Amino acid sequence: MTSSGQGDQNYDVVVVGNGALGQSLALTLARRGHRVAMVGRPNRPWAASAAAGAMLGCFGEITESLVASEYGRLKLNLDVHAARMWPSWAAQLAEESGGEDVRTAEGTVVILNTIGVPGIDDVNYAAIQAELRRHDEPFSDVDPADLEWLDPDPGARPLKAFHIPNEHAVNAAALLDQLHVAFVRAGGTVLPELATRVDYAHGRARGVVLESGSLVRGEHVVLAAGVRSQDLLATVPDVAATVPPLVSGYGVSALVRTGDGTAPGSVIRTPNRAFACGLHVVPRGQGEVYVGATNIISTDPVETAVIRDLDFLLDCAGAQVRRNLHNSGLHRVQVGNRPVALDGFPLLGEAGLSGLWMMTGTYRDGLHLSPLLAGEMARRILGEEPEFELDAFRPVRAPIQAATREEIVEGAVVHQLATGYECDWKVPINWPSLIEAQLRPAYLKLADDIDPTFTPPPELLDAARLQPTLVKMLRDYYAASRVSA
């Protein structure tokens, strides 16, 4: 169900992007009677939400480093409030679209197994529980032997586990379909093309130019196209120089039809580890599961899964969650590109031109945050009183650095070693300490070579070792931030 928008090309708001964030904002504005155009190809190339496991897991995603900084705690506060919005948000979507409940999992089980390293898995496992207690969220320890669907290789057996009853998951594809139908029924216009340029004059955004060459005018323009928002922002060079550039957190996931026709009732996941979100298996209906996900920083979005990454993912799932997955059918391989700002934090708010807004850079939790950010960005666009603190994440800002250089380097070292253990490396017993001794000065030198003061997050620092393009992006960004300051 698509409105072509061939007539009226003047709108109150033009939302560029049709993933979870863009559609949620467009729908929120259309519900309130505003003329809204949503721009984006129907197949959503490069999108993160189209390939997401869609775990509504604000607590399951917690890491020790997240809650150690003011900015991380602010982001967690948004996640907690978003989680509370999901029941009513999903119910209203189902009613407006004529669809069914998109929930696929009841609760989440977090396992601590023998594959991870104490400096990451143990401390993140404890950090999740500490925040659950702090927010009075229920959870209960469980004996891994009592988890019927869990059947890992004995060498990867879980040491302990706990259940979070209120952290569910949804079917991302069904959610995106419901958002689309509800938006059109609310009177919104879908323009199934890519936007190629922001149109602006005299310090104000006026609309966007589509790949067909047509101009779509709007009082407000919102860049919510994930990592591809960077291409559009680059067409406004003076503004782009003041905003942290976006790169991709490329990830591979798989839909698997289980060989025995079973699926768990809940999400099964590890804590976040090794520069990535934790290994997770999410039920997607009888006999089908979602297996995710990898995370590799790339300066350009990735369209096709790399065999190495898929092989690693499926091996991890079979060894750490359920051995019988190796006898299952690979139904679909999915590729997503998480939008990652160079300082690691979201880009939310007006962006250097009157009427130009950004709603991206949310990394791993854009879909989870979509109900909250849709309402909050709509309030800001319409000039209403905000309800949540987003100003720390405004696009035009100095680089955010949530830890010291030494702490970031140490994080990069530990995560790099953890990657080796998760890949089941076979090295002499004394080699990890030798590798660690080499990594630390190498990361420090790289950080010094990039900038004397600013240091990117650990996963970007690590990725810069092998990506000269990323090194240049970081150097240019830090230099530009000093000029704009």
From TrEMBL:
Top-level taxon: Bacteria
Swiss-Prot/TrEMBL keywords: Oxidoreductase
Record has DNA repair as a keyword: no
UniProt domain FAD dependent oxidoreductase: residue ranges: 12-379
A Pfam entry, by short name: DAO
GO cellular component: cytoplasm
UniProt key word Signal: no
Record field: transmembrane: none
Protein name per UniProt: FAD-dependent oxidoreductase
Source species taxonomy: Bacteria, Bacillati, Actinomycetota, Actinomycetes, Pseudonocardiales
